[in-house]
Write a structure and sequence with these properties.
This protein is mainly α and 103 residues long. It has 3 helices and no strands. It starts with 6 loop residues before the first helix and ends in a 9-residue tail after the last helix.
């Protein structure tokens, strides 16, 4: 039981926890980057469909004319760039430079 009270024992556990938190944070940032990229690709694909439908239904006033919609707007914000900027900040926060203990 005496070993658990030694400062080096506690320091080793703190360093292990720090490393685990850094790994989890970096992996989370990577996952968010992948999701942001996928969202940007989906936005592009989703915005292409109404353009094609409007072209095909041009004689009938496009999609809005065919469905008799007076307000027919499709807006999708691209938050992928913002998420990627946030993950850069997350990685900077998670990184801890190498530390040495001088007892």
């Amino acid at each position: 039981m005496w070993g658990a009270r030694e400062p080096i024992y506690n320091l080793n556990h703190i360093i292990q926890l720090q490393a685990i938190i850094e790994i989890i944070t970096i992996e989370t940032a990577h996952a968010l980057d992948l999701l942001a990229g996928q969202a940007t690709q989906m936005q592009t694909a989703i915005l292409q469909h109404p353009m094609v439908l409007d072209y095909l239904l041009a004689e009938e006033g496009g999609v809005c004319g065919k469905l008799n919609y007076s307000n027919c707007c499709l807006k999708i914000d691209d938050s992928g760039k913002i998420v990627k900027q946030m993950t850069v900040g997350i990685r900077k926060l998670a990184h801890v430079p190498v530390q040495t203990w001088k007892g």
